[in-house]
From TrEMBL:
PANTHER family: 3-DEOXY-MANNO-OCTULOSONATE CYTIDYLYLTRANSFERASE, SPORE COAT POLYSACCHARIDE BIOSYNTHESIS PROTEIN SPSF
Keyword presence, Nucleotidyltransferase: yes
Domain of life from the UniProt record: Bacteria
Protein name, UniProt field: Acylneuraminate cytidylyltransferase family protein
Family matches, as Pfam families: CTP_transf_3
Molecular function via GO: nucleotidyltransferase activity
GO cellular component: cytosol
Keyword terms of this UniProt record: Nucleotidyltransferase, Transferase
Length: 257
């Protein structure tokens, strides 16, 4: 596949609502909103043609739309609850033939891992590729590096056929819950780094991310390897959020009730 194909679109879902850290996507990290940090890193992935933020039509997310306009980030506003529908409509609006799904709480995501997942999707002619799937699959990448890739045609199929609430809210379960329905490629990471938590869902997570950025002098160019090297040298940093429990992928927004 050619690099910088505009039909390969990374869509980052983001909203202000968060049960454990409200407004987390706009929390400042070294003077910039966390979501801007993430967009900057994703844009460095050589396989990504466009990076788009998919936020909601909820008035509380007006500030995300304002931030996107301020920093020149394309965005779309859709359903607060049916995130699959939000992805489908965002992909259609921006002419995506291949969708790379990311969540807006991963401000140190490594563009090389994104590229690896996208390349694998094309090389294996997969319907769906990911570098992490929920149990019973074994995670090997750190939390905060999750990348999922799907074609627009298959996303449209899921949009039409997925009926369960968690399938609509978490976007991609329809692709891997039933064995044999789609050709799924799961990329493992060597060595296993699953015990590291590099996402932001709590104040403890944010404290770690801020420390990481400050260590690298507030640039956006450090790699996952460099982060792991830092945490190995500074176990006190890794301990900042070591007790945080990751939410289950079957957890649903309470507004679904």
């Amino acid at each position: 596949m050619p690099a910088r194909d505009s039909s390969v679109v990374a869509i980052i879902q983001a909203r202000m609502g968060s049960s454990r850290l409200p407004g987390k996507v706009l929390k400042e990290v070294c003077g910039k909103p966390m979501l801007v940090r993430q967009v900057t890193r994703v844009r460095r992935a050589s396989t990504i043609g466009q990076v788009v933020v998919a936020t909601t039509s909820d008035p509380e997310d007006n500030c995300i739309a304002e931030m996107c306009r301020k920093f020149g980030i394309p965005y779309f506003r859709g359903s607060p609850l049916d995130v699959l529908d939000r992805y489908y409509r965002t992909a259609g609006l921006f002419g995506a033939e291949t969708i790379v799904r990311l969540t807006g709480d991963c401000p140190v995501i490594d563009p090389r891992l994104i590229d690896r997942t996208v390349h694998s999707f094309f090389e294996h002619k997969a319907d769906f590729a990911a570098n992490r799937l929920p149990p019973p699959f074994k995670r090997t990448t750190p939390i905060g590096m999750d990348t999922e890739v799907v074609s627009f045609d298959n996303l449209a199929r899921a949009w039409c056929e997925a009926e369960q609430k968690h399938e609509r809210e978490h976007v991609m379960p329809y692709f891997y819950q039933q064995e044999g329905r789609f050709k799924v490629v799961l990329l493992d990471h060597e060595p296993d780094l699953s015990h590291y938590r590099l996402t932001v869902d709590t104040p403890e997570d944010l404290a770690l991310i801020q420390q990481i950025y400050e260590h690298f002098e507030c640039t956006d160019e450090f790699s996952l390897d460099e982060i792991i090297s830092l945490l190995e040298q500074r176990p006190d940093l890794a301990a900042l959020n070591a007790e945080v429990v990751q939410k289950d992928f079957l957890d649903k927004d309470t507004r679904f009730q």
